[in-house]
Amino acid sequence: MVVLGTGGTIAGRAPSAGDNVGYTAAQLGVAQLVDAVPGLRRWVEQGLMLDSEQVAQVDSKDMSHAVWRRLAERVATHVARPDVSGVVVTHGTDTLEETAYLLHRVLAPHKPVVLTAAMRPASSSQADGPQNLCDAVGLAMHVQAHGVLLAMGGVVWSGAEARKVHPYRLDAFSAGDAGALAYIEEGRLRILRGWPQATPLGVQVLGPEIWPEVQIVHSHAGSDGRLVELLLEAGVQGLVVACTGNGTIHHDLMAVLMRAQQCGVSVLRALRQGGGVLVPGGHDELPAAGGLTPAQARVELLLRLLIQR
Question: What PROSITE patterns does this protein's entry cite (predicted)?
Protein backbone atom coordinates (compact mmCIF):
# COMPACT_ATOMS: atom_id res chain seq x y z
CA MET A 1 0.00 0.00 0.00
CA VAL A 2 1.23 3.49 -0.85
CA VAL A 3 -0.03 6.82 0.52
CA LEU A 4 0.72 9.85 -1.65
CA GLY A 5 0.53 13.29 -0.07
CA THR A 6 -0.40 16.52 -1.85
CA GLY A 7 -1.10 18.82 1.12
CA GLY A 8 -4.55 20.26 1.80
CA THR A 9 -6.52 20.87 5.00
CA ILE A 10 -5.84 17.33 6.16
CA ALA A 11 -2.21 18.48 6.53
CA GLY A 12 -3.10 21.93 7.86
CA ARG A 13 -2.44 23.62 11.17
CA ALA A 14 -4.15 26.47 13.04
CA PRO A 15 -2.88 28.63 15.94
CA SER A 16 -5.23 26.85 18.36
CA ALA A 17 -6.95 23.48 18.58
CA GLY A 18 -10.34 25.20 18.65
CA ASP A 19 -9.84 26.99 15.33
CA ASN A 20 -11.30 25.03 12.42
CA VAL A 21 -11.26 27.80 9.81
CA GLY A 22 -8.26 30.09 10.47
CA TYR A 23 -5.66 27.50 9.54
CA THR A 24 -2.88 27.24 7.00
CA ALA A 25 -3.18 24.21 4.73
CA ALA A 26 -0.35 21.86 3.71
CA GLN A 27 1.87 22.16 6.79
CA LEU A 28 2.44 18.50 7.70
CA GLY A 29 4.12 15.88 5.55
CA VAL A 30 2.28 12.73 4.56
CA ALA A 31 4.59 10.59 6.70
CA GLN A 32 3.53 12.63 9.75
CA LEU A 33 -0.13 12.14 8.86
CA VAL A 34 0.32 8.37 8.57
CA ASP A 35 2.28 8.11 11.83
CA ALA A 36 -0.44 10.02 13.69
CA VAL A 37 -3.18 7.44 13.00
CA PRO A 38 -3.23 4.62 15.61
CA GLY A 39 -5.25 2.31 13.37
CA LEU A 40 -2.61 2.49 10.65
CA ARG A 41 0.17 1.78 13.15
CA ARG A 42 -1.67 -1.34 14.30
CA TRP A 43 -2.05 -2.56 10.72
CA VAL A 44 1.66 -2.00 10.09
CA GLU A 45 2.50 -3.95 13.26
CA GLN A 46 0.29 -6.74 11.94
CA GLY A 47 2.26 -6.90 8.67
CA LEU A 48 0.80 -4.23 6.35
CA MET A 49 3.52 -2.79 4.13
CA LEU A 50 2.67 0.91 4.06
CA ASP A 51 4.87 3.36 2.17
CA SER A 52 4.36 7.12 1.89
CA GLU A 53 5.55 9.66 -0.65
CA GLN A 54 5.18 13.43 -0.79
CA VAL A 55 4.13 14.30 -4.35
CA ALA A 56 3.29 17.94 -3.61
CA GLN A 57 2.58 20.21 -0.66
CA VAL A 58 -0.09 22.70 -1.68
CA ASP A 59 -3.35 24.22 -0.57
CA SER A 60 -5.61 22.55 -3.14
CA LYS A 61 -7.09 25.92 -4.18
CA ASP A 62 -3.66 26.39 -5.76
CA MET A 63 -3.65 23.05 -7.60
CA SER A 64 -1.83 23.23 -10.94
CA HIS A 65 -1.61 21.24 -14.16
CA ALA A 66 2.00 20.39 -13.28
CA VAL A 67 0.96 18.83 -9.97
CA TRP A 68 -1.82 16.92 -11.73
CA ARG A 69 0.68 15.50 -14.20
CA ARG A 70 3.12 14.53 -11.44
CA LEU A 71 0.38 12.96 -9.33
CA ALA A 72 -1.04 10.95 -12.24
CA GLU A 73 2.44 9.70 -13.11
CA ARG A 74 3.18 8.62 -9.53
CA VAL A 75 -0.20 6.93 -9.12
CA ALA A 76 0.30 5.06 -12.40
CA THR A 77 3.79 3.97 -11.36
CA HIS A 78 2.64 2.57 -8.03
CA VAL A 79 -0.51 0.93 -9.41
CA ALA A 80 1.71 -0.93 -11.89
CA ARG A 81 3.80 -2.42 -9.08
CA PRO A 82 2.83 -6.05 -8.36
CA ASP A 83 3.57 -5.57 -4.65
CA VAL A 84 1.11 -2.66 -4.31
CA SER A 85 -2.54 -3.55 -3.76
CA GLY A 86 -3.82 0.03 -3.79
CA VAL A 87 -2.93 3.71 -3.57
CA VAL A 88 -4.29 6.39 -1.23
CA VAL A 89 -3.99 10.12 -2.03
CA THR A 90 -4.35 12.81 0.63
CA HIS A 91 -5.71 15.98 -0.94
CA GLY A 92 -7.40 19.28 -0.19
CA THR A 93 -11.17 19.46 -0.61
CA ASP A 94 -11.32 22.62 -2.74
CA THR A 95 -10.28 21.01 -6.03
CA LEU A 96 -10.68 17.38 -5.05
CA GLU A 97 -13.54 16.82 -7.51
CA GLU A 98 -11.32 17.98 -10.36
CA THR A 99 -8.35 15.80 -9.40
CA ALA A 100 -10.57 12.77 -8.83
CA TYR A 101 -12.27 13.18 -12.20
CA LEU A 102 -8.92 13.64 -13.94
CA LEU A 103 -7.46 10.46 -12.40
CA HIS A 104 -10.65 8.55 -13.22
CA ARG A 105 -10.53 9.51 -16.90
CA VAL A 106 -6.77 9.22 -17.36
CA LEU A 107 -6.01 6.09 -15.33
CA ALA A 108 -9.26 4.17 -14.71
CA PRO A 109 -7.13 1.81 -12.59
CA HIS A 110 -8.03 -1.83 -11.98
CA LYS A 111 -6.67 -1.40 -8.46
CA PRO A 112 -8.24 1.01 -5.95
CA VAL A 113 -6.98 4.59 -5.94
CA VAL A 114 -8.65 6.22 -2.95
CA LEU A 115 -8.59 9.96 -2.41
CA THR A 116 -9.25 11.30 1.04
CA ALA A 117 -9.30 14.73 2.66
CA ALA A 118 -10.48 16.64 5.70
CA MET A 119 -12.72 19.56 6.51
CA ARG A 120 -10.80 20.36 9.70
CA PRO A 121 -7.05 20.84 10.05
CA ALA A 122 -4.78 18.29 11.69
CA SER A 123 -4.38 20.64 14.67
CA SER A 124 -8.12 20.63 15.44
CA SER A 125 -9.30 19.06 18.68
CA GLN A 126 -11.94 17.33 16.54
CA ALA A 127 -9.85 16.61 13.42
CA ASP A 128 -11.61 14.40 10.88
CA GLY A 129 -8.50 13.65 8.85
CA PRO A 130 -7.14 10.70 10.86
CA GLN A 131 -10.35 8.67 10.59
CA ASN A 132 -10.74 9.55 6.92
CA LEU A 133 -7.17 8.41 6.24
CA CYS A 134 -7.70 5.18 8.14
CA ASP A 135 -10.94 4.54 6.23
CA ALA A 136 -9.21 5.25 2.92
CA VAL A 137 -6.43 2.75 3.59
CA GLY A 138 -8.99 0.17 4.69
CA LEU A 139 -11.00 0.75 1.53
CA ALA A 140 -7.86 0.42 -0.62
CA MET A 141 -7.26 -3.00 0.96
CA HIS A 142 -10.78 -4.23 0.21
CA VAL A 143 -10.82 -7.04 -2.36
CA GLN A 144 -13.85 -5.62 -4.20
CA ALA A 145 -12.58 -2.05 -4.47
CA HIS A 146 -11.16 -0.72 -7.73
CA GLY A 147 -11.06 2.48 -9.72
CA VAL A 148 -10.80 6.05 -8.44
CA LEU A 149 -12.76 6.51 -5.22
CA LEU A 150 -13.23 9.12 -2.50
CA ALA A 151 -13.51 8.05 1.14
CA MET A 152 -14.62 10.79 3.50
CA GLY A 153 -16.90 10.97 6.51
CA GLY A 154 -17.60 7.25 6.35
CA VAL A 155 -18.97 7.50 2.81
CA VAL A 156 -17.44 6.17 -0.41
CA TRP A 157 -18.01 8.18 -3.58
CA SER A 158 -17.02 7.54 -7.17
CA GLY A 159 -14.18 9.78 -8.32
CA ALA A 160 -16.16 10.37 -11.51
CA GLU A 161 -19.15 11.76 -9.62
CA ALA A 162 -18.01 13.32 -6.32
CA ARG A 163 -18.35 17.06 -5.84
CA LYS A 164 -18.00 19.42 -2.89
CA VAL A 165 -21.37 20.85 -1.88
CA HIS A 166 -20.70 22.53 1.48
CA PRO A 167 -17.89 24.83 2.66
CA TYR A 168 -17.84 23.77 6.34
CA ARG A 169 -19.75 20.65 7.34
CA LEU A 170 -17.95 17.32 7.68
CA ASP A 171 -20.41 15.78 5.20
CA ALA A 172 -19.28 18.23 2.53
CA PHE A 173 -19.44 15.90 -0.50
CA SER A 174 -22.15 14.47 -2.68
CA ALA A 175 -22.53 12.74 -6.02
CA GLY A 176 -25.75 14.41 -7.10
CA ASP A 177 -28.44 12.01 -8.26
CA ALA A 178 -25.96 9.11 -8.45
CA GLY A 179 -25.56 8.84 -4.69
CA ALA A 180 -22.90 7.09 -2.66
CA LEU A 181 -21.14 3.88 -3.69
CA ALA A 182 -20.80 2.48 -0.18
CA TYR A 183 -20.63 3.24 3.54
CA ILE A 184 -17.76 2.44 5.87
CA GLU A 185 -19.22 1.31 9.20
CA GLU A 186 -16.85 0.29 12.02
CA GLY A 187 -14.27 -0.68 9.45
CA ARG A 188 -16.71 -2.74 7.40
CA LEU A 189 -17.77 -1.84 3.88
CA ARG A 190 -21.48 -1.82 3.02
CA ILE A 191 -21.70 -1.63 -0.78
CA LEU A 192 -24.73 0.11 -2.29
CA ARG A 193 -24.04 -0.19 -6.03
CA GLY A 194 -21.42 -1.17 -8.57
CA TRP A 195 -17.94 0.33 -8.75
CA PRO A 196 -17.22 2.87 -11.51
CA GLN A 197 -16.00 1.66 -14.90
CA ALA A 198 -14.04 3.60 -17.49
CA THR A 199 -11.64 3.18 -20.38
CA PRO A 200 -8.29 4.79 -19.46
CA LEU A 201 -6.90 7.50 -21.68
CA GLY A 202 -3.39 6.79 -20.39
CA VAL A 203 -1.08 9.05 -18.45
CA GLN A 204 0.75 9.99 -21.67
CA VAL A 205 -2.18 12.25 -22.61
CA LEU A 206 -0.94 14.66 -19.92
CA GLY A 207 2.52 14.83 -21.50
CA PRO A 208 2.57 18.30 -23.13
CA GLU A 209 4.29 20.97 -21.07
CA ILE A 210 1.74 23.58 -22.18
CA TRP A 211 -1.88 22.51 -21.85
CA PRO A 212 -4.80 23.98 -23.81
CA GLU A 213 -6.30 27.17 -22.43
CA VAL A 214 -9.76 26.30 -21.08
CA GLN A 215 -11.80 28.75 -19.00
CA ILE A 216 -15.18 28.75 -17.25
CA VAL A 217 -17.76 31.49 -17.77
CA HIS A 218 -21.15 31.82 -16.10
CA SER A 219 -24.52 32.68 -17.53
CA HIS A 220 -26.44 34.98 -15.22
CA ALA A 221 -28.75 37.97 -15.26
CA GLY A 222 -27.05 40.70 -17.26
CA SER A 223 -24.58 38.45 -19.11
CA ASP A 224 -23.37 40.18 -22.25
CA GLY A 225 -20.48 38.11 -23.57
CA ARG A 226 -17.75 40.73 -23.13
CA LEU A 227 -15.68 38.35 -21.01
CA VAL A 228 -15.81 35.74 -23.78
CA GLU A 229 -14.70 38.35 -26.29
CA LEU A 230 -11.64 39.08 -24.12
CA LEU A 231 -10.89 35.38 -23.77
CA LEU A 232 -11.09 34.92 -27.53
CA GLU A 233 -8.62 37.76 -28.02
CA ALA A 234 -6.31 36.04 -25.51
CA GLY A 235 -6.38 32.81 -27.53
CA VAL A 236 -8.66 30.62 -25.42
CA GLN A 237 -9.14 27.14 -26.91
CA GLY A 238 -12.01 25.85 -24.81
CA LEU A 239 -14.91 27.35 -22.85
CA VAL A 240 -17.19 25.79 -20.28
CA VAL A 241 -20.34 27.78 -19.65
CA ALA A 242 -22.07 27.26 -16.30
CA CYS A 243 -25.71 27.42 -17.33
CA THR A 244 -28.98 28.39 -15.73
CA GLY A 245 -31.99 26.07 -15.77
CA ASN A 246 -31.71 23.02 -18.00
CA GLY A 247 -28.64 24.32 -19.79
CA THR A 248 -30.03 27.72 -20.72
CA ILE A 249 -27.77 30.66 -21.56
CA HIS A 250 -28.45 34.42 -21.64
CA HIS A 251 -29.10 35.31 -25.29
CA ASP A 252 -26.32 37.94 -25.41
CA LEU A 253 -23.78 35.47 -24.04
CA MET A 254 -25.13 32.73 -26.32
CA ALA A 255 -24.52 34.82 -29.43
CA VAL A 256 -20.83 35.24 -28.56
CA LEU A 257 -20.44 31.56 -27.60
CA MET A 258 -21.91 30.45 -30.91
CA ARG A 259 -19.47 32.71 -32.71
CA ALA A 260 -16.63 31.27 -30.65
CA GLN A 261 -17.67 27.73 -31.61
CA GLN A 262 -17.78 28.71 -35.29
CA CYS A 263 -14.21 30.02 -34.93
CA GLY A 264 -13.01 26.62 -33.70
CA VAL A 265 -13.20 27.12 -29.93
CA SER A 266 -14.60 24.06 -28.12
CA VAL A 267 -17.60 24.98 -25.98
CA LEU A 268 -19.28 22.76 -23.38
CA ARG A 269 -22.39 23.50 -21.33
CA ALA A 270 -22.57 22.47 -17.65
CA LEU A 271 -25.07 23.00 -14.87
CA ARG A 272 -24.10 25.75 -12.46
CA GLN A 273 -25.96 24.00 -9.60
CA GLY A 274 -24.69 20.81 -7.96
CA GLY A 275 -27.37 18.25 -8.83
CA GLY A 276 -29.18 16.72 -11.77
CA VAL A 277 -28.11 16.37 -15.39
CA LEU A 278 -28.71 18.37 -18.54
CA VAL A 279 -31.76 16.78 -20.13
CA PRO A 280 -31.43 16.68 -23.96
CA GLY A 281 -33.93 18.38 -26.22
CA GLY A 282 -34.20 21.86 -24.81
CA HIS A 283 -31.22 24.00 -25.73
CA ASP A 284 -28.83 21.79 -27.66
CA GLU A 285 -27.07 24.29 -29.92
CA LEU A 286 -23.96 23.70 -27.81
CA PRO A 287 -22.82 20.28 -26.51
CA ALA A 288 -23.63 19.36 -22.91
CA ALA A 289 -21.53 17.90 -20.09
CA GLY A 290 -24.30 15.75 -18.62
CA GLY A 291 -24.12 15.76 -14.83
CA LEU A 292 -20.58 17.14 -14.51
CA THR A 293 -19.97 20.25 -12.46
CA PRO A 294 -18.43 23.18 -14.34
CA ALA A 295 -15.03 22.37 -12.78
CA GLN A 296 -15.28 18.72 -13.85
CA ALA A 297 -16.49 19.76 -17.30
CA ARG A 298 -13.38 21.92 -17.63
CA VAL A 299 -11.22 18.84 -16.90
CA GLU A 300 -13.19 16.86 -19.48
CA LEU A 301 -12.71 19.56 -22.11
CA LEU A 302 -9.00 19.81 -21.28
CA LEU A 303 -8.61 16.07 -21.83
CA ARG A 304 -10.52 16.18 -25.12
CA LEU A 305 -8.26 18.94 -26.42
CA LEU A 306 -5.13 17.15 -25.21
CA ILE A 307 -6.21 14.02 -27.10
CA GLN A 308 -6.54 16.06 -30.29
CA ARG A 309 -2.95 17.29 -30.11
Answer: ASN_GLN_ASE_2, ASN_GLN_ASE_3
